[in-house]
């Protein structure tokens, strides 16, 4: 019985050893799972890159890189299997022992891995090397790799060939267009300065134009979508641009349906190329602009066509003031609001606005459709108060000697007007004044309380009491002068 117990105890030791072996295998499985997770992350990264704004050339290059990465990973595992098959059995008849019999060969791990990887690549191409199978299992694995390469890797090679051919076609078309352009310049004996300007303009226009954000009209599949879904797409798309303005953000938060009507009936998309004119001095203003992408140039007081906006040297001279005289030149970048004053006043443009980047995307809010939407909504009172406060502030700017041009837009002033008109900042004071129960001291006290609660910034030059009285007088003035009336 004692001997039986001892033998059973020895078995338990073997069982513990087997458990350790199983644990080691489990750890190897976990390592394989980690590699699989990394490959999944890499595939997700490639998918994200494909969905970004890239050119056709960049998309083709990305597909080629993806195919090369797939081939690289498969060759890596093939090389590892080729080495494992050689060292799995304890015999000297394998490619590792035969190859490293030569003492002059390096025996480090890097050389061993690169040798196996080199062998795996040669099984997919007509190339050859000094490594051959030396046993039946190595020969069987070699045949399996060749058959696998015939079935799978041929598709990868054909796909890469197609991508390279398409890449060559893109370059060929561009070279053909450039050769036609150079032929035209040569046949008409154009000056060197003009020819340089034309070629530089074409080079600038080639790449960045394809990098602009896509618009709704650029997606052909949207033409088959129902109208309700298109309206939702427009609302969400335009909100990212016009939602930065406090007025439209307030409409979006309070009345989502009205905001949707504004996006679908009042807003249109405009694309402005470099040098193309948006409006000229003296033109009647019909709405405001939001710059979604690109850059615009504005010159105050320009009413002639002598200036060439495509000539960078001429533009720099005007911007430096050498030839501008009384004109004011400025650049308007992405996110700027242009000509909001035309929404609330009868306005004629005071300068010239034109595209300065290769492509500029604009959102244009039209006055008349906007007025119709607001007139038939429950927000008429708030928007009318905002319009009158804005008109008063704009007119004061002109009377104080400041330049009231098409690009006048003070963020702090707009935020202050929005808080007063849209968030109830003047509601208590207006109600008291309408009932004829207010004194200037009480009105000033109520206004100070609202100013402290809303963190209003006093940016005007006149005293606070006179400023508040003018605001309240404007709210109850039935004839706001030149302001647009929202009936």
Report the count of strand segments: 8
Overall SS class: alpha+beta
Query: Average pLDDT across residues?
Result: 74
Report helical residue fraction. Answer: 55-70%
Quick one: overall form? elongated
Sheet with the most strands, sense and barrel status: 4 strands, antiparallel
H and E order: HHHHHHHHHEEEEHEEHEEHHHHHH
Q: Span between N and C termini?
A: 109 Å
Number of helices: 17
Strand content: 5-15%
Biggest sheet strand line-up: 1-8-3-6
C-alpha Rg, in Å? 37 Å
Low-confidence stretches: 1-21, 322-326, 455-462
Describe the model:
The longest helix has 52 residues. The N terminus is likely disordered. Helices cover 60% and strands 9% of the residues. The strands form two sheets. Strands 1-8-3-6 form a four-stranded antiparallel β-sheet. It has 487 residues and is an alpha+beta fold. Helix 9 packs antiparallel against helix 12, helix 13 packs antiparallel against helix 14 and helix 13 packs across helix 17.
Short précis:
This is Cyclic nucleotide-binding domain-containing protein. This protein has 17 helices and 8 strands.
Name a few traits of the molecule.
487 residues, alpha+beta, four-stranded antiparallel β-sheet, 17 helices, 8 strands, disordered N terminus
Mind sketching the topology for me?
Elements: H1 2-51, H2 56-88, H3 95-99, H4 109-122, H5 136-187, H6 192-206, H7 227-242, H8 246-254, H9 256-265, E1 267-273, E2 277-279, E3 287-293, E4 296-300, H10 312-320, E5 328-332, E6 337-338, H11 341-344, E7 351-355, E8 359-366, H12 367-375, H13 380-399, H14 411-422, H15 427-434, H16 440-454, H17 464-475
Antiparallel strand pairs: 1-8, 2-7, 3-6, 3-8, 4-5, 4-7
Helix pairs in contact: 2-4, 2-5, 7-9, 8-9, 9-12, 13-14, 13-17
